[in-house]
Amino acid sequence: MELGCGSRRPVWRFASVPMTDVTCILSAIERGDLQAADQLLPLVYDELRKLAAQRLAQEKPGQTLQATALVHEAYLRLVGAGDPGWGSRGHFFAAAAEAMRRILVENARRKQRHRHGGAGQRLDLDEVDLAGAAASEDLLALDEALERLAGTDPIPAQLVKLRYFAGLSMEEAAAALGISPRTAERNWTYARTWLHRAIAQDDERDPA
């Protein structure tokens, strides 16, 4: 895979690579290289899965992933001590949010298959770092509703992913999306209302 960064082929060793190859991908994304964008998500996903496995191995049974901590730790490992700028960070966090969503949904599905009963807890999108702590059925309901929202209103859906799964603040998420904080606030209010309504309607149709 050549990304216009010289003839050296990238070597994906996150713990040992400083700024070189990953920065090259992020810079290529900023230049509009769609192939580079396609390559970022698998890299982020693999790194987040590795971090999740390490974190879970250290935790007591029943404790959960902390989405924000994992995403930010992955970012630090990927880019090293340097900061390629908000444009690159925006691309990274978008990919990391999607990767974190997939990991948490997969984890929730596994828990649901082995679940022996018990009441779920209601999701509150105001508490944007609850992605790891949510009951599995609630997280899956949110994910299904979020996919429907993305089909009609991609910006509000992406804002939710950045805040809920990557743990970004409103200002950080707005910068990542290239919109103003005021616009982000409007999209956040709309997305929360839409998702709560969609999940409630799903619950009415399937009370079990």
Any overview of this molecule?
The chain is globular and about 50 Å long. The protein contains eight helices and no strands. It has helices at 20-30, 34-58, 67-79, 86-113, 136-152, 154-165, 170-177, 181-205. The protein is mostly helical.
Keywords summarizing the entry:
208 residues, mainly alpha
Give the overall form: globular
Distance between the termini: 49 Å
Q: Low-confidence spans: pLDDT under 50, at least 5 residues?
A: 6-19, 116-121, 128-133
Task: Tell me the β content.
Answer: under 5%
**How many distinct beta strands?**
0
Q: Mean of residue pLDDT?
A: 78
Tell me the helix content. Answer: 55-70%
Q: Which helices and strands appear, and what pairs or packs with what?
A:
Blueprint: H1 20-30, H2 34-58, H3 67-79, H4 86-113, H5 136-152, H6 154-165, H7 170-177, H8 181-205
Helix pairs in contact: 1-2, 1-4, 2-3, 2-4, 3-4, 4-5, 4-6, 4-7, 5-6, 5-8, 6-7, 6-8, 7-8
Condensed summary:
With 208 residues, the protein is mainly alpha-helical. 67% of the residues lie in helices and 0% in strands. 32% of the residues are buried.
